[in-house]
Write a structure and sequence with these properties.
With 219 residues, the protein is mostly helical. Helices cover 68% and strands 0% of the residues. The chain is built from 13 helices and no strands. The radius of gyration is 19 Å and the shape is globular. The relative contact order is 0.07.
Length: 219
């Protein structure tokens, strides 16, 4: 079965897609829409997902994350998978499609946020941003802003992006902290000049906060 799936993924390989993905650090050439179509046909197959992950092929791992059962992974297994996730898209999908649905999400959030590896730490911050929006009870938002203010400016790219997302979500979702979040964003100027296509919201925290708050007000 694994061989059949790998052969199908090989037929979907597109050099132009690979070139575009390569600019973002993702080493695969499969259009994600086609990959999702394969996943839809295969449906949930957790053991196949595990075998596809073990191939260390980026497209196969992305497919694995679409057909796995998130709650079936153990805590240590998810930790190992995150550290194996070389490609940014694999890392992103693992956190968003699998770990966020796992019963181990909070334990991993705490462990990863304190990890010395900035890529692992970025996963912890992504999970923290999720909690800021959905389940903020128990989070010390003031302390989070203290850490962001101190560390975000000089953080490596992926960690910086995750911390910036957390900053923006605090400003968007928690009016009592909005002024401080805006002030931190203005002072640090992280992602201020990030190229943003027309019609899209800038990731620069003050612009992001302002736009999302405007939408909330306007309904």
């Amino acid at each position: 079965m694994v061989g059949d799936v790998m052969a199908e993924l090989a037929t979907l390989e597109d050099t132009r897609v690979r070139e575009a993905n390569g600019k973002r650090g993702d080493d695969h050439g499969v259009n994600l829409g086609r990959l999702r179509a394969v996943a839809k046909r295969l449906k949930s197959q957790h053991e196949l997902a595990r075998l596809l992950w073990e191939t260390d092929d980026t497209a196969a791992r992305l497919l694995a994350l679409l057909i796995c059962r998130p709650k079936a992974f153990g805590r240590d297994e998810l930790d190992t998978m995150l550290r194996q996730a070389r490609a940014p898209k694999v890392h992103d999908w693992l956190v968003n499609y699998v770990v966020k649905k796992s019963p181990h999400a909070e334990e991993l959030r705490l462990a990863w946020s304190a990890d010395p590896d900035p890529v692992v730490a970025s996963a912890g911050w992504a999970l923290t941003a999720e909690r800021v929006v959905k389940t903020p009870e128990g989070l010390d938002l003031t302390r989070l802003l203290d850490v962001i203010e101190t560390e975000m400016k000089d953080a490596p790219d992926r960690l910086q992006w995750a911390m910036n997302t957390c900053l923006a979500q605090i400003g968007i979702e928690h009016p009592e902290h909005r002024a401080r979040a805006l002030g931190i964003g203005e002072r640090l100027e992280v992602l201020k000049d990030y190229p943003t296509p027309p019609g899209c919201t800038s990731p620069f925290a003050p612009a992001w906060i302002g736009e999302m708050v405007r939408r909330k007000v306007e309904g």
